């Protein structure tokens, strides 16, 4: 969330991912994806810098999170369940060769979730 200031000097936080566009004519207006409009005292450049700093902070926090994400668990009902929360990496069985074929030599799905290549229609 970024903190911006209304014209009456009260501050509020807004989710920058929900900002559709920003106008500055003469007051800075944030137009949200749901159509809501907020007039703020910050300039267009200041709002853009706040958004850039917010996104940089999120990336930085995600990059330097301590611990191994594959060891994270969550509860489903009464049982803790193992769920990796890190990046999804290909296992050797799912890796495709340079031609795009999987280990079986097929371009289609091998049951392990490999992508299916598209082919043009013949109609």
Features:
123 residues, alpha+beta, 3-stranded antiparallel β-sheet, two-stranded antiparallel sheet, 1 helix
Structural description of this entry:
With 123 residues, this protein is α+β, with helices and mostly antiparallel strands. It has a domain at 2-63. Helices cover 16% and strands 25% of the residues. It contains 1 helix and 7 strands. It has one helix at 44-63; strands spanning 2-5, 11-14, 19-24, 28-32, 37-40, 73-76, 79-82.
Helix content: 10-25%
Uncertain segments are none
Structural class: alpha+beta
Instruction: Return the average pLDDT rounded to an integer.
Output: 77
Element pattern in H and E: EEEEEHEE
Radius of gyration: 23 Å
Name the strands of the widest sheet in spatial order. Answer: 3-4-5
Shape, per Cα inertia axes: extended
Number of strands: 7
Largest sheet: 3 strands, antiparallel
What's the total helix number? 1
Amount of beta strand: 25-35%
Cα end-to-end separation: 50 Å
